[in-house]
Design goal:
By secondary structure, this protein is α+β, with helices and mostly antiparallel strands. It has four helices and five strands; from the N terminus they run ββααβαββα.
């Protein structure tokens, strides 16, 4: 609905535990050895989403074994720290977390829209 690439994951106590992204979803259906190939034009009849449809309908995010760490920043981070995290680490967004609780999300668009674009 909102065309976001990542969504936060919270546990039963509302503690932030990570996120899941489009990359994670796509990676789940791709065999591990594919990540070492330069191209896969020789593969004509593979459905990368087949694994989803074969999986039990009660599959959990934990079953996906997400290896990367979610981009987190503290609520007292400066704008330069946020921009650094987004730019230097090529992130689309950062999660604002304090004491394990998700306070919000800052993405590239919000920086441009709210801070860099002056109202006329």
């Amino acid at each position: 609905k909102y065309h976001v690439d990542s969504l936060p994951i919270v546990d039963e106590n509302e503690n932030f535990v990570g996120d899941i992204s489009g990359f994670d979803l796509f990676s789940f259906g791709i065999p591990e050895f594919f990540f070492n190939l330069k191209k896969i034009s020789f593969v004509k009849h593979m459905d990368p989403f087949e694994k989803y449809f074969l999986a039990d309908t009660t599959m959990k995010i934990a079953d996906m074994k997400i290896k990367r760490k979610a981009p987190v920043i503290s609520p007292d981070a400066t704008i330069i720290e946020i921009v650094f995290e987004l730019t230097a680490h090529d992130r689309q967004l950062v999660y604002v977390v304090e004491d394990g609780k998700l306070l919000g999300v800052i993405d590239r668009f919000s920086i441009v829209d709210k801070i860099l674009v002056a109202e006329v």
